[in-house]
Amino acid sequence: MKMLRKQFVNLSRVSTHLPRNVLASRAASRGAEMSTNVAPAETATAPPPVINEFRTGVTNPGEQSELHVAKFYTIPIEEKKQIFSGGGLPKQYEKQIKTFTEACLMVRSPALELLHYIKNADLTKPAVRYVLYGDNGVGKTLTMAHVLHYGALNDFLLVHVPWAPNWMKRPKEAANSASQEGFIDLPFDAAAWLIHFKAQNSKLLQRLQLKTSKEYVWSKRESTPAGATLIELVEHGIARIKYASETTAALISELKQLATAGQCKIMVAIDGYNAFFHPITRIFSDNKQRVSPDRITLTQPFLDITSYDWTNGVCVLSVDKIAMTEGYMSSYMPRYLLGKEGFEHLDPFVPVHVGNYTDKEFISYINYYLDRHWISKTQPGFEEQLKFLSNMNPYTLMRLVRGL
Amino acid sequence: MAANLARLLECNIRCNNAAAVQSGWRLFSNQRQQQTEVEDDEEFRVLNLRTIKQQARRREIKKNAVQPPRTSRMPVDQDWTAVWSGPRSFHPASVPLPLRQGYTERGAAAPSKYANAELMKIPNFLHLTPPAIRQQCEAIKKFCTPWPKGLETEAKWKRPFPIEVITTDYCHSLPTIRHPEARRVTITLKLSDLKFDAHAKDKFLRLVGERYNQETGVLTFSADRCPMRKQNYDYAMYLLTACYHESFVTEPWEATKSEADMEVYQFERNQAKRSAEGILNWNATGEQKDAPSANYAKSVEALINEGENEYNIAKYKEEVLKMLKIAI
Amino acid sequence: MGFVPYTTLSSLRTLKCCRLMSMYPPHFAEPILKKDSEIINKKDVSHVPIKAAPNDLSDSIFYGVLKNKLLKYITKKGNGSLAKQLLTDTLETIKRTQIERLNLINAEKENVIIDTERILVNAIENSRPLLQLSEIKRGGVKYQVPIPLTEKKSYFLAMKWLLDAAREKDRKVHLPDKLAWEILDAAHGQGRVIKKKDDLHRQCESNRAYAHYRWS
């Protein structure tokens, strides 16, 4: 968050710095003549986006099919703000969205496969766990974002953790838990997650009017009565940061019960899920020893909601090499990353492989970049060079293209 | 006075001459010509008060004329085994081959076989020509028994004789003919030749340890602790027998084997089965319970025992989708 | 804004051949960058000895003569990979700002240059000085004498000034950001580097009376 804010500050500095140069650029007539041949497509910046061969107008992920593979669809700004304001898109991608003035996602086959499963799933059966796996930078998070968009449009309550390792690797604050002996609370992170949850689901929560099933007593004076709405519960957690972790646990157990009772359906999306099964965290306990993730109070509810003992839900999890630390990163396969414990917790799950771009996707992406003026060097054969240099890995391609 | 002087001079000259002759004699010992010259000078005898000892003449060594090499007399169809019957260092005159061996300067031909130490130093196999071997085989044939019928190929004789005994005999030039390494006995056999049940096989492999090669499936017992070969052989066979029979014994403490001690992942014993059953029997009221399919169990076992790879994980995914009845 | 086409840039590379202490005799030809360059008749080249190609010369889309030169000026303590990263970040920032500006303005979109390399060229061409003041002692008095610069030196100075301006920053600002702003400013004919160049030219102009000291 902090980093992101800093980026915004930088960018806004750049943009305040710029307008005085506009006149000068107009005066530069010779330079202007040269810049006409920079990019082939010119007309895409107008508010109603032009449908090119690499774009699709189908903005509802539920309606996308194999026909739309390798095509871009635009997430409307309000929806993007609702779903991804608290994270969920990679930082670099956020930057790209800001520069390109549109939140475009490419329709890729792993996401379509997942959506196909979710659409045809029998929700009366226990929640199915889908595990996205793949090498670094292949688009696991964006696939998850695609699915999240679907969930938000189809009345799923989103239980979304943008990047779980943040809790283990760089927590804002760690405090001893008051309720559980020997456990560690992450009050600020829990509160941030509650805010994120509220931002994603406030509309739906208001519509569904979900009620708590039992009374939660936080302290002598504070309690949440049975029958209070979930929004009240969440707002209590946000207001009283001290109890945010416990509120999270309460909220998730309530959600599970409500979903099993059939009052709502839930989509759980946790990025970097294997961080919950990493042997150690970077948090120190009172006796100056590193704590294992299961001693963090936030871990328990999210492990709970990813087990199979509830219905009306779907879990989309991703396992990632970079959620681990040095020495645990030799493979990107789910069993290796989850470890024995994690595998036993998730089994049986549906592994979904996310791979590098196919040729079609690659060409489509290059076209998109050209359309957005992002590539200005279009010598013959530049696609070939990029293809070989990036190995069609999305992240590598993004990093290569930025200096062009 | 003058005559005296002349005589003295003459004497000096003679002395000089004699010295010259002497030195000539030493330098060129086999030139007889000069000797006769000295004798011819005897007529000018001088007074010789101290007679110079006649030097003993060196005995002449009579050398036989060198015979031409034997190879020049060899017929083309001779019996080579008679010429070169046993191992022997190279002899140029006996080998009718234009051999050359050795290092020379660039461009020059290699030294010929005569007086060539390079050829003599290296071992040769001139006594092991194919006709010689054939001849010897022919000679010892009468001591051999015929090869048993029905054991013509390796596959055929491997079945009745699964154990292979490997020993080494050493031939060397020491006062003793015993070689310390000759006592070593190695027996090998395929594990598949032994009959086991699951428990016995596991226990046998644990007993045997690294004597079993996982990749080839071959057991190797090697013994060298006893002084005699026979004893070592007996010991190796004893080891094999003892391990085999011990593996069928079940000790009471073996029942305490926990999941962490398991050498392979078994679906039946693990959480995977409980989870799968829990999902399949969700909200089930009846008595009968659905069990996860054998294929699913196999795929989970393969995933964990064989390690993860694209194939195993794809297989696992397929089975999970089938089990959970997710639309494919 | 004085826009100078690429042809002047090529002189940066060919300048090397005039070196007195060159390890190659003068009849050696420069290596050819493009694989299928139609400019050169292959028969002409076939029997001419060719200099060994420098190891940073490449045919890729990431290569630019000027970019390479600037890269070497950015490098500190031989850490070329960091310099490359910094320059790439710079170019990215430039591109981002230009695209954001393109999206901001409604009319005259053609006036916004997005090709970062062209912006870089413009910036450097704009900040190239023509003259330099050199101290010459005549009659016990030191005079600041304006002296014309060689092309190579002027390119060097332009890039050095840009970098110096970028390195003179707050600790919290990153070099790529600052360098990007300086380059953008210079490309539009404003900013500290252009001012520095103008100041130098003005000083040379005022010292033109001493110009004859250069050769007398």
Automatic annotation (TrEMBL), chain A:
Transmembrane segments: none annotated. Keywords: Mitochondrion, Ribonucleoprotein, Ribosomal protein, Transit peptide. It comes from the Eukaryota. The keyword Ribosomal protein applies. GO terms for cellular component: mitochondrial small ribosomal subunit. The keyword Disulfide bond does not apply. GO terms for biological process: apoptotic process. GO terms for molecular function: structural constituent of ribosome. It is found in: Mitochondrion. It holds the Pfam family DAP3. Belongs to the mitochondrion-specific ribosomal protein mS29 family. This is Small ribosomal subunit protein mS29. It comes from Drosophila virilis. The gene is Dvir\GJ19940.
From TrEMBL, chain B:
It holds the Pfam family MRP-S28. This is Small ribosomal subunit protein mS35 mitochondrial conserved domain-containing protein. GO terms for cellular component: mitochondrial small ribosomal subunit. Transmembrane segments: none annotated. It comes from the Eukaryota. Residues 158-247 form the Small ribosomal subunit protein mS35 mitochondrial conserved domain. One of its GO terms (molecular function) is structural constituent of ribosome. InterPro entries: Ribosomal_mS35_mit, Ribosomal_mS35_mt. It comes from Drosophila virilis (Fruit fly). GO terms for biological process: mitochondrial translation. PANTHER family: MITOCHONDRIAL 28S RIBOSOMAL PROTEIN S28, SMALL RIBOSOMAL SUBUNIT PROTEIN MS35.
From TrEMBL, chain C:
Keywords: Ribonucleoprotein, Ribosomal protein. SUPFAM superfamilies: Ribosomal protein S7. Pfam families: Ribosomal_S7. Residues 57-208 form the Small ribosomal subunit protein uS7 domain. GO terms for biological process: translation. Gene3D superfamilies: Ribosomal protein S7 domain (1.10.455.10). One of its GO terms (cellular component) is ribosome. Belongs to the universal ribosomal protein uS7 family. PANTHER family: RIBOSOMAL PROTEIN S7. This is Small ribosomal subunit protein uS7 domain-containing protein. It comes from Drosophila virilis (Fruit fly). The gene is Dvir\GJ15410.
